[in-house]
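User: quick one - fold this with flavin-adenine dinucleotide bound?
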Amino acid sequence: MKTAVQNKYDYLIAGQGLAGTVIAHLLLERGRKICIIDEPSLSSSSKVAAGLFNPVVFKRLVKSWMAEEQLHFAEDFYPKMEVLLKARFFYKKELVKIFAEEQEKTLWEKKRSAELSTYLSAIQAGSAVGDSIHAEQGYAFVSCAGYLDVPLFLELSRNYFLAQNLILHEKFNHALLTFSDEMVTYRSLGAKRILFCEGHLAASNPWFSWMPFNLAKGEVLTVKIPGYTVDKVVNKGIFILPLGNGLYRVGSTFAWDKLDELPTEAGKADLIQRLEKVLKLPYEIMDHRAGIRPTVINRRPLIGVHPKHPALCMFNGMGSKGVMIAPLFADHFIAHLQEGVMLNPEVDIRRFYKEPAPGNKG
Ligand SMILES: Cc1cc2nc3c(=O)[nH]c(=O)nc-3n(C[C@H](O)[C@H](O)[C@H](O)COP(=O)(O)OP(=O)(O)OC[C@H]3O[C@@H](n4cnc5c(N)ncnc54)[C@H](O)[C@@H]3O)c2cc1C
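Assistant: Sure. Structure tokens for the protein plus flavin-adenine dinucleotide:
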């Protein structure tokens, strides 16, 4: 027997990780009616994320893709959320880059006087940072960086959505979704569209099987470091992020095989080895976690409307930079959905679409 559709929403949102949470807030701000369906135990990527944002890619020492636009939007959005949710979870913090060799410093000076002048400081001489960190080759600072306490932002948002009956805690069952070009129905819920924000689990979404995810498992440690005095984010092959109360997050690893969310001995050993190269003090491991980043082949988000089923949409592919990417592109996607603004072709899922093989729902 068919269930009568009782509730009419503008959008259903499947998934309340960072992506689903950010787009849900922006839709509410614009007066849209939403209902979120999320089973928190299914994925921990956002809960594991260190939440760092940094306009510079250290590997090649270049500006991160669309860094100015993303930062501009994030620095407006998260403080607004802090007011709405009545708590502090967005922190601007300088990042300290510790140099390993002379060559790195030469490149740093070159970039500092050119395209990265806004972000890079002069190189500091010295063999240690605050007596806590080895820095025999010197160090320098990156401005406009910081971190979002992602788990706290998600938890407070969840409570906010719950208080307004906007969220259901259950596993979304794709087999129960029916849709036309104009609407979707999920059990008794009707909406004009559904936004899939399932993180890495979207790899098994039956309508989006053509998404070129290149998922990357990551592991992080939480450590206690008595006597540590650096109140900045240290980076040298790993990051050390101060969390308060003498605790620090240390991360992270990247692995493209064995894609489960279980912490491993190999991941832990790798982090310990890198931590001990840079840290001058004894430490104690308090926690060890793993998650799967929704990373994509060409490192651009996966956003857009399904080319054949216009009621099905995707907001995903935040990769390892969800904190910076999500606010700007949630706003951009809503402008596309609501006002027909053209979607940036670099993020539009259509760039990957191919006609599905017979028998495939894609
Ligand atoms: C170790 C590690 C470190 C990281 N560090 C950083 C960092 O420093 N800075 C940064 O910006 N990013 C970082 N990231 C990346 C960041 O976690 C992601 O970019 C972002 O959190 C992805 O959010 P998401 O909402 O797309 O996915 P997820 O966080 O995976 O959220 C998806 C949500 O959908 C739910 N869901 C999925 N399927 C269903 C279903 N069928 N029914 C109901 N619910 C469902 C899941 O339970 C989950 O709640 C890190 C990631 C890892 C793993």
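One thing worth noting: The chain has a mean pLDDT of 94.
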